[in-house]
Amino acid sequence: MKQRMKLLLLGMLIYCSTYALAANKILLIESYHADYPWDISYVEGLRSVFESKEISLLRFQMDTKRVPSAEYQQKADEAWAYYQQVQPDLVILGDDNALKFLAEKFSQTNTPVVYLGINSNPNKLGITKYKNITGILERPLFKKSIAQVKEILPNAKKLLILFDNGTTSTQALEDEFKGKKTGAISGIKIDIHQIGILSEWKSAVSSAKESGYDAIITGLYHTLRDENDKSVDSTKLIEWTSENTPVPMFAFWDFAVGPKKAIGGLVLYGFSQGQAAGKMAMDILSGKQPSSIRPKIGEKGRNLYSKSLLEKWSITLPDSIAKRADYID
């Protein structure tokens, strides 16, 4: 009996060891931080693909939403050192700063790399020539989202669009609006403000109505700094903005929608980016060469709205939007 137990235990140990050896290590290098809503969402998307697979997911956060830009290179160096330490089978680079600071280094390795959440143009970055790197592009639905706000508020004539001055905001706006800060879309005038200082953001929000704006659309707001050059708490900022805006506020990303945030909109969400990148990673681990997989634009957005804020602002969605919308409180 004892001999049988020993053999059984030995068999279990061999099985566990074999499983551990078979597991693929994937290193996710995040431009931002683990509790940033976008990261939370796309990591859920990655895990939805990896959960039934033999995958060990390791993570490193560069934290570039909160640290000064002068420290980005240092964070990239730390990420590289961690990569060298863990020696993963595949690397995922989340968002623009990770790709910008690390793509060239990874191109000199044999490690396959998948990126996600990229607003930059891969051609301008020069990464299309790297045979071991491919991924998922993020293309915000700015113009479609603005057109939808006009559909919801047919009498609106002027919109204020607010962004921080971070890398992702700058890249996204440059790609969509070619550096122009004013224009007209679907018959509604738009003004784009990129703001880096908290007091300027608050002033723009508080004076929106007297400045002639009928609504605000918030983009990214996570790199703002206060007058002491300290990173602003993004959750408190969006809650303050929601509470103090004198006009209805909509959003371009899902994490900005909620009862203490924005009313909603046609928004991008990180889950689909993570899911697409996860599937691409599994294709590569199954034998496909990154060079044979063309970069893809992530799945289109979804209609997401807060019931309580629709009620607060006495807004009734048109049937064409309401019937395909998702709702939160």
Task: Give structural notes.
This protein has 329 residues and is an alpha/beta fold. Helices cover 41% and strands 22% of the residues. It contains 12 helices and 14 strands. It has helices at 2-22, 37-50, 72-86, 96-107, 122-125, 142-152, 167-177, 198-206, 234-244, 270-285, 307-312, 319-322, and strands at 24-30, 55-61, 90-94, 113-118, 133-137, 158-164, 182-185, 188-195, 215-218, 249-251, 264-267, 296-297, 302-306, 325-328. The strands form 3 sheets. The protein has a 6-stranded parallel sheet with strand order 2-1-3-4-5-12, sandwiched between helices. The chain starts with a helix and ends with a strand. The model is unreliable at 1-22 (pLDDT under 50).
Give a short synopsis of this structure.
With 329 residues, the chain is an alpha/beta fold.
